[in-house]
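Task 17 of the worksheet. Students: predict the tertiary structure of the chain below and write it out as structure tokens. Keep your answer in the requested format; marks are given for formatting as well as content.
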Amino acid sequence: MNISDVLSLEQVWLGDQVSSREQLFDLIAKRLSSRRDLKPEQVVASLMERERLGSTAVGDGIATPHARFSGLTEVIGIFIRPRMGILMDALDEKPVHLLFVLLAPDYASADYLKTLARVSRVMRSAENQAILRLSESKEAILSVLMSEDDV
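Model answer:
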């Protein structure tokens, strides 16, 4: 599964004013529930449950929150660059500035985990991070995120 299979331009969110992991997950839940038949509390609960297992903040200001839950019929990716960094219990204790959220149906195969690994590779590159942190162009951000897709 390629990043282009789960991410579109409308799912690149820049400059949202959120100051905590909880506010971030609430924002995700509200935006997704308005476009899909999802219960916001289910989205938040699934993401928080995954965080309880261990932080999805991987260091260097990057996090990849992900969860599986019922009621979802497709894998959804969202890239978020909030206005301010968010503390998410990263090992390096740095705030998170770049997030790629991946939500999948509870029956999703291992393909969604391969997509998560692909996202991680893209976001770990220093060159890509510079573009993701500074670009105001959603198209440029989308292009960087899809750079690891199979051609």
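Marker's comment: Strands lie at 12-14, 57-59, 62-63, 66-69, 76-81, 98-105. The chain has a mean pLDDT of 92.
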